[in-house]
Amino acid sequence: MLFNEGKIGNIKLKNRFVMLPTVTNLSNSGFVSDRELEYYNRRSKDVSLVIVEASYVNKFGKFFANQLGIDDDDKVEGLKKLSDLLHKNDAKAGIQLAMHNPKYKPSDFTKGQIQDFVKDFAYAAVRAKNAGFDLIELHYAHGWFVNQFLSPDVNKRKDEYGGRLEGRSKFAVDILKEVKKHVPDLTVICRINASDFTDGGFSIEESIEFAKLLERYGADGLDVSAGVGSTSEYHISPMGIKDKPLLEFLKKIKENVNIPVIAANKLGFAGDWEEILNNNIADFVGIARGLI
Ligand SMILES: Cc1cc2nc3c(=O)[nH]c(=O)nc-3n(C[C@H](O)[C@H](O)[C@H](O)COP(=O)(O)O)c2cc1C
Question: Which of 39, 63, 96, 289 for mutating ligand 1's site (highest number of atoms within 8 Å of CB)?
Answer without folding.
Answer: 289
